[in-house]
Amino acid sequence: MKSKLIIIIALFTISLSQAQLRKWTLQECVEYAVENNLTVEQFELDLENAKIDKSDAIGALLPDLNGTPRLTENIGLSFNPTSQEPVNTQLNYTGDLTSTVTIFDGLRNYNRLNRAKLNAIANQYRLDDLKDDIRLNVANAYLQVLSNKEQLKTFEAQYAVTEQDLNRTKELVASGVVPRGDLLEIEATAANQEQQIVNGEGLVLISRVSLAQLLQITDYENFDIADESFEIPPSDILKNSPKVIFDKALSFRNDIKLSQANVELAEKDVDIAKGAYYPTLSAFINYNTRYSDQNLDPTDLSIIPFTDQLWIFDGLAYGLQMNIPFFNGWSARNGVKRSKITLERAKLQFELDKLDLETTIQQAYVDVTTFRKAYDAAEKTLEARRLAYDYAKERYDVGLMNAFDFGQAQARVDNAEADVIRTKYDYIFRLKILEFYYGIPIKLN
Which family does it belong to (predicted)? Predict the structure, then answer.
């Protein structure tokens, strides 16, 4: 029994450790961020409110029905409402049901319904646009962690090589082959690389925390991304001109759809405001009845029963009512003017949003070509630096180069390797941004 308990505890500990050491892929990060972002939840509540507004607008087109029961007791001289006789004290019950319906109100209720439908659609675009921004931000933060991790691995590999050179130089100094100054130079290089490793570890940690914060995860110590390296992905996006990418982006981008929906909402607001110019026609029907505890005939001591009185004294009223707005202090006219100004603002904002999108795509297109060239140049520089380093090492090994010059050659290789990693991930992210504007989902493999 004791051994079984130990096995269960061990299995539980292993499973818990694996759960804590879960490493997230990009897709998992994006999906988690979209599903758990607090702002997304707020926008989802706004969308639910917009749907309720639509239900309100539908209800405004339907007849209403209201009942008003009333029970009163009069003390002192009053009149019996059923017999119109004077009495000192009486108990009265009255009740009525009233239904009204708007037949015509300048189409305001109809336009409010259409506006509510548009508003629900606009809120959906707003929510989807937020999710698009989250996906881009998460992808950028994720790639930053990858870039920092690759740089840290490079620093550690460089330090491992320097350690070998350091040990070898110690032996040469001990045997009197090279001066002690060379050893000091290599020790300084090793110390500098150790500092790079410490800084690299800090950058990895900071970028991991930044990504976790985007995901709204607070367990920073047990949060990490999958250990994978990404090469430059193949892409045909540059075969399309910026104009082609822009035209396609106009057809599906949620921020553009939201801006266009805002114009349509403003147009509906103008129609609603114009409705105040027209007469309002409504119909009503009312059913009412009453009861009194007083006799109809004072010589008759009996009282007509409650239910019988309700039927005897009931009545029905119905009719039409029209409200004609002859003059309302220019409020209707000014309301229309204000709504037209809001419409013009929405149209201008729509054009500005399209211009911003076009500018962003143009910049993204230039960034892709620029960062691709920077990456290619960094690779060529690294290749040249490595050849120079190999040549310098051969000279150093035979005593034709001092440790300082050899350390400079190695430092140039280190810098070139760091530039390759940085420009690679800069290019990957810009490439993914441009593809995203073309409608291609963000994926790294």
Answer: Belongs to the outer membrane factor (OMF) (TC 1.B.17) family.
